[in-house]
Write the structure tokens for this entry.
Amino acid sequence: MVEMDETARLELARRMAAAIPHSVALGMHVEAIGHGSAVISVPYDEKLVGDPTTGVVHGGVITALLDGTAGTAVMTHPKAPGGTATIDLRIDYMRAARPGQTITAHAECYRLTRNVAFVRAYAHDGDPEDPVAQANGAFTVEPRGTKIGETA
Amino acid sequence: MNKRPRPEPVQVVKQRRDAALARLTTSVPYMQFMGMRFERRGNELTGILDFSQHLIGNPMLPALHGGAIGAFLESTAQMTLMWNSVWDLMENGGEAAQKIEAGDFPAWPKTIDITVDYLRSGLPRDAYARAEITRAGRRYASLRVMTWQDDVEKPFAEALVHFLMPQG
């Protein structure tokens, strides 16, 4: 990515997210991006409920959020030439997210090689010290030009 | 002379099973939102993810969102496990079967973890998934699940999922 100031980078990341239909459908909001890291949230919505008796959001929402945040972290890495796609993603669900709470995911691309990006991520519902889920993933490193790829 | 009870008419049995499955699916708002449904042959289930533009994760290719694919695999595994319990309750008859018929289902198994293997990009068309229960214990269950589009021999993603069974 060409040198840009931080506000412009965040603005660009938000525009890119707005072009991803599934991110828009889930209500994903890019809170912050770093250089190989990203923070994205999804507000509580009744249409995303997985267990009607408890009102708890479906695990799939957290899967999509962690996957999207991890992919974004890869693309903000200073050495990432272009887009990315998920190779594999492992998610541990530590507890149910509290109904009504916004879920926020933090992802960090801790290692980027020529072909593979390694990412760890977690999601919480208000207290980062008490996460609801944790993830580890490997992502492809796509050549320049593919741009805002969001997984396969 | 041993007289066994006359079997119920096929339509009655079918209708009861299909109604229970439809009720389970429509009770989950997220499955409605995603456009997921399930078809059954006896107790065997196939998950169907009807294509819709909002499932796209890469508008350039275009390709399905990895998260949507993971969610579809997880939901198919979860429904397969749930259906397995519901089926047994239904088939054993008695009070438990009456509860199912009244729409009173057991609690959902909770996902402990999922590992998704993305094999190729998901095309902008319908996807199908099938899960296999590799272990159904009293506390834990383990499932393998795969999803394909055109060629069942060429899944575009697979997952290994563990669940915590409802206690009590």
In short: The beta strands of chain B are 36-41, 44-49, 56-58, 63-64, 110-118, 127-136, 140-148, 157-164. The longest strand of chain B covers residues 127-136. The mean pLDDT of chain B is 94.
